[in-house]
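Hello Y.,

Per our agreement to keep a running log of every chain we model this quarter, I'm adding this entry. I've kept the format consistent with earlier entries: sequence first, then predicted structure.
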Amino acid sequence: MTGGFVLPPYPYDRLERVRELAADLPGGAVDLSVGTPCDEPSPAVLDALRSAAGPYPPSVGTAALRSAASDWMARRLAVEVDPADVAACVGTKEFVAGLPHWLRLLRPDRDTVLYPAVSYPSYAMGAVLAGCRAVPVAVDEEWRIDLTSVDPADARRALCLWVNTPGNPAGGLDDLVAAAEWGRERDVPVVSDECYVEFTWDGVPAAEGLAPGRTILEAGPDGVLALHSLSKRSNLAGARVGFYAGDADLVGFLAEVRKHAGLMVPGPAQAAGVAALGDQRHVEDQRHRYLTRLERLSSVLEGCGLRAPMPRGGFYLWVPAPGGDAWALVEQLAARLGVVASPGEFYGDAGADHVRLAVVQPDGALDLVERRAAGVSLT
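Predicted structure for the entry above:
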């Protein structure tokens, strides 16, 4: 069937040649291109996933899951959110990609999605799939969104503004309170993707017992949504458990629309989510793993002559490519170290001179990279 819409290639499908190049080295490829958690979920989470069964679960999320999410936000982020203002989503990617479609039902007079110019590609693709304008917002030298750069004409047409803290791919930490205020002044919902919040490394003083994570809900719930995922914090990517919380009217509307669309997290996955949100020990263990891997890979790459600064959050290294040629560095990493990395253009034209590496592979894979890197120069 023919039509007027042609999908662009899926970004990571463009790496097939690079994967083949990396796989030619003894020991095979070490894939650091996609942020797919490779560590095991905790035993308690797996037990909950195996034990739950029953009828269709509620699309909005079970009472247990919504309460567990509310309790977790109170403990970890020091914000009080009524469980009634929390709703489940089938992982967060489907929510990101589908949100503009649902918001257009509320605001058919608006057609624009604002998102950081260097960011997760699904923010822009969600706009495209909804027939909206995808308008990038400039980021500053620390990879934070620069809201002063938004054209007032684009703000008047905006269905929503996306922010992402800690940011993928560069680890920037946005001023979320300022973003909330910007949206309220312009009647633009601000949606804060906070899936890496447990992997915030610096930038905010930590309260006693808390990681230095931030949420947009610190500014109050009006006109904002916070989006959270268990994929990263609890290694539950395959279970597809996420949730959104904040403005009561927005949460209520989206929950009803999504119910009509048949979107629901499977019951066993919701039970696993309850167990994961109730246990912080496994998250602290994962924080330690990722921070150690980031430091280790940064050291390996700098030993090869690259600049590989530590991020302020997230589990990615955002590496400037020598001469600004990201694809050349991606091929060098594959041919010399057996590493599959992502060129920065996947995350926006403004990132085209960088390369992203996800420290998701187990320590044994990094042992292999470290051995291969001995005496190698990538400059």
